Structure prediction request, 241 residues.
Amino acid sequence: MDRIVYDRMAAHDSTHWWYRARRDILADYLTRYGDVPAGARILEIGCGTGHNLPMLAKFGSVEAIEIDPAAREIASERLGRPVGDAPLPELPGVERGAYDLVAVLDVVEHIEDDVAALAAMKSLLKPGGKILIAVPAHQWMWSAHDVVNHHHRRYSKTTLKTAIERAGLKPDRLGYFNTLLFPLAAAARIAGRMTGRDDSDDSPPAKPLNTMFEAIFRLERHLVGRLPMPPGVSLVTLARP
Prediction:
């Protein structure tokens, strides 16, 4: 990712509506469907500034990997111990067969060989382990945001399912989220393309809008996984061997 993306993440990951509501949605999703055992060993790959680590720590003992040095330093401070730097897809030096849960939250789209990356994650799992995957959806929504984030692709349900299965995994409860705000996001992408004002700035909006968007997005915590959600900005699944 461009340096500015990590800088914005560090500045806004505790206040931006998207980060805050997404953490709650994923926590509820894991609680209902993750079957995470007590005392679980958890690894987040591509943890960025570590903003998801406290949420994941509710489910067990958390370790993390981040390849960007500045983001890794922030994440290490948040975690209270060093964060690793093993890159995907190889994950050199990471213990195989050791984890009950691996989390890759908006990470797989950054990897050119997503199948190899998913296969490497599979090798990290204990028997019964699983991978929590979230990715951006809809290739037609490609924008400057994807460019500065160094994405290789956005996913459809079919392309994500295919990549997971080619890696020797099975997707469970694969579906959309960030659905309630999807019409607004889609309209913004289309308008930006038509006007030539495609903007990569993902700083939070004015406080009243930020609060409103967070409340709307957070409503999905009661829906994701329970209902077949209409198209959304993102996809989520739990992948199992």
Q: What stands out?
A: The radius of gyration is 17 Å. Residues 73 and 83 are 8 Å apart (CA to CA).
